[in-house]
């Protein structure tokens, strides 16, 4: 068996996990604004239990009404909250999985807008770079009150039939703020030396233990490395791990980082290596005898197996890949590795939607958060469904429709499936997107979808096909603005460069500083194509991209000496250069090539010709309104499910 270690049971305290696959905590924003469990929240966790995970750790349960970092995080500090959350634990237990409640106070990593106008309370008055609100330093009495709040929440967690508790003491939240000099500037008994800084955690642990008893597992999550000046390092984390074991803590979740766009350790994007923090877990494991969890971009079950086998950790946190595919453990156990829906670490719908204070989504999994809606349980009459366009939207539509029992045909005008996503896999940090395309193609084969390549559909073709439902997923077309000289031979589109259809070299201007333009410049820089400049008409590049990814992009551009000109318009393109206007001043810049990356517009030329199909026609994705792969995939899946 290739996954012998991962499917060997493991004890945490007095409970046994059936395997080493763990869903670590991540805010999903699926409770209501008071923290009560919703059907969406319950089904979200149930899907992971059904998929084979041994342990599920919920998102942060705020210990009082004003302790949450987001509007819709879970809470269970009142007795009437227990019933709803018990429905979730009951649902999880049906599949033999265990579930821990992570309990926390967000500290400075929240704001008064989330918590009803109440000032944020913290260890010391230092502001969070994401929330940008100056908090108030806690008094000794307030610290004691918070300790009691943790105990009340813990008591209710046990009453709701959770199997254990994870005390969140990492990632810059309240307890983490006390633990290191990065936030803790106090000079009283809760500041200064190591023993004083860990005092609040010890008091919280003792209070929680007093409420749940000696036989209830308690795990602590903390950041082994904060990756900030004055932040905790692994040297002190080894000390903390030994203290936790001495107190009676049953296991340790070895996390890393704090909030901040420049702290790239808080969110593992595709610019980070896989399993990049497991050396820290191994360091902690070397000084304690209790189980230690390794985390951070471990999304391959065989990688997880090697980490456990080689002694880096005892069990493996695999959070974002559980968003991408909640069935991953079951598929891995059956050896169906090529059927695992891959996490591409885009952070588009997970982290990106957390900060929007709405339920999270997933670029590669349109069912995420919709488990209660897309049940595939009801029987529907079989239809003949035609899908025009083989990008992610069209493929997801075909998959959903086929799973519903329909006869599905997909026409694609080129010789490859993937649409515009085929170009997106080439820039640095985007290679893993190819695994998503491969997964979709595999699903089409498994579901016996009739895929016809090199089929350039006309309105007449579509009507003559006689489908019961037509889903138009023809995607978008690159914008080519009416700029004098834009049709010259030295002008190419970004997708032409990324697909290898055309090559450019020398002095290159990339016209457009959105995500596509920046990534195209990165691609050219990595290939050492010459002197590259990005020209963007607005005041920042990649404005719609997650801030942690933008920081990584900028680091890459700086390292490769790519120049950036913002607040600059393209006026005219000549044979040997380009006329720009920078903040009202025109100047001619010599160049050998211009790469146009100025967005997309819908490829909807067939829509008007197909109006007489009425409600038989659905237009989705970029064919309707240009957005991104996640929006296209989501719209496609919904159209296919409801075909």
Rg of Cα set: 26 Å
Shape: globular
Averaging pLDDT over every residue, what do you get? 95
The number of distinct helices, counting runs of at least 4 residues, comes to 20
Strand content: 15-25%
Question: What topology, given as strand order, has the largest sheet?
Answer: 3-4-5-8-9-10-11-12
**What is the number of strand segments?**
27
Derived from helix and strand composition plus strand pairing, the structural class reads: alpha/beta
The major β-sheet equals: 8 strands, parallel, barrel
Q: What would you say this structure looks like, in words?
A:
With 643 residues, the chain is α/β, with parallel strands linked by helices. The protein is 30% helix and 18% strand. The protein contains 20 helices and 27 strands. The strands form 7 sheets. Strands 3-4-5-8-9-10-11-12 form an 8-stranded parallel beta barrel, surrounded by 6 helices. Strand 3, helix 1 and strand 4 form a beta-alpha-beta unit. The longest helix has 20 residues, at 140-159.
């Amino acid at each position: 068996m290739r996954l012998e270690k991962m499917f060997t049971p493991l004890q945490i305290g007095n409970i046994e996990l059936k395997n080493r696959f763990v869903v670590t905590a991540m805010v999903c924003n699926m409770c209501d604004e008071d923290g009560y469990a919703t059907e969406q929240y319950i089904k979200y966790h149930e899907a992971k239990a059904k998929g084979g995970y041994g342990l599920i750790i919920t998102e942060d349960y705020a210990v009082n009404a004003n302790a949450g970092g987001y509007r819709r995080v879970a809470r269970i500090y009142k007795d009437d909250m227990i019933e709803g959350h018990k429905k979730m634990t009951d649902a999880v237990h049906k599949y033999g999985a265990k579930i821990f409640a992570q309990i926390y106070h967000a500290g400075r990593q929240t704001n008064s807008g989330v918590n009803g106008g109440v000032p944020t309370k913290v260890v010391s008055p230092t502001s969070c770079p994401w929330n940008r609100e100056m908090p108030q330093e806690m008094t000794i009495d307030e610290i004691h009150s918070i300790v009691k709040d943790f105990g009340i929440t813990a008591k209710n967690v046990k009453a709701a039939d959770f199997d254990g508790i994870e005390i969140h003491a990492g990632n810059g939240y309240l307890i983490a703020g006390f633990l290191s000099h990065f936030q803790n500037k106090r000079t009283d008994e809760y500041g200064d030396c190591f023993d004083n800084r860990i005092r609040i955690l010890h008091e919280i642990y003792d209070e929680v233990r007093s409420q749940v008893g000696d036989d209830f597992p308690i795990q602590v999550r903390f950041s082994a490395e904060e990756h900030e000046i004055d932040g905790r390092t692994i040297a002190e984390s080894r000390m903390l791990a030994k203290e936790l074991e001495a107190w009676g803590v049953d296991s340790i979740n070895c996390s890393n980082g704090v909030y901040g766009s420049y702290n790239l350790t808080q969110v593992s994007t595709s610019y980070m290596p896989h399993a990049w923090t497991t050396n820290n877990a191994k360091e902690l494991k070397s000084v304690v005898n209790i189980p230690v969890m390794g985390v951070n971009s471990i999304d391959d079950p065989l990688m997880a197996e090697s980490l456990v086998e080689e002694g880096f950790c005892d069990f493996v946190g695999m959070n974002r890949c559980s968003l991408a595919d909640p069935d991953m453990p079951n598929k891995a156990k059956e050896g169906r590795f090529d059927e695992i829906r891959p996490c591409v670490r885009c952070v588009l719908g997970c982290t990106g939607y957390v900060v929007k204070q709405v339920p999270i989504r997933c670029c590669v999994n349109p069912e995420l958060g919709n488990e209660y809606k897309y049940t595939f349980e009801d029987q529907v009459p079989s239809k003949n469904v035609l899908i025009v366009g083989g990008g992610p939207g069209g493929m997801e539509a075909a998959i959903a429709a086929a799973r519903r029992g329909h006869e599905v045909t997909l026409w694609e005008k080129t010789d490859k499936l993937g649409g515009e996503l085929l170009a997106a896999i080439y820039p640095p940090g985007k290679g893993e997107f190819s695994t998503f395309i491969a997964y979709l193609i595999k699903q089409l084969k498994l579901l016996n979808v009739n895929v016809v390549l090199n089929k350039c559909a006309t309105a007449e073709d579509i009507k003559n096909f006689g489908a019961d439902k037509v889903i138009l997923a023809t995607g978008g077309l690159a914008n080519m603005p009416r700029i004098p000289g834009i049709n010259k031979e030295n002008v190419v589109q970004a997708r032409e460069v990324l697909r290898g259809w055309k090559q450019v070299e020398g002095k290159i201007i990339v016209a457009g500083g959105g995500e596509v333009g920046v990534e195209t410049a990165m691609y050219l820089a990595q290939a050492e194509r010459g002197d590259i400049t990005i020209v963007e008409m607005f005041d920042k590049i990649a404005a719609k991209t997650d801030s942690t990814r933008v920081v990584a992009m900028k680091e890459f551009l700086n390292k490769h000496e790519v120049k950036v000109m913002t607040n600059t318009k393209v006026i005219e393109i000549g044979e040997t250069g380009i006329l720009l206007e920078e903040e009202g001043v025109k100047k001619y810049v010599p160049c050998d090539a211009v790469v146009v990356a100025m967005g997309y517009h819908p490829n909807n030329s067939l829509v008007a010709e197909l109006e007489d199909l009425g409600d038989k026609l659905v237009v989705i994705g970029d064919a309707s309104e240009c957005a991104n792969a996640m929006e296209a995939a989501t719209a496609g899946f919904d159209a296919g499910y409801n075909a």
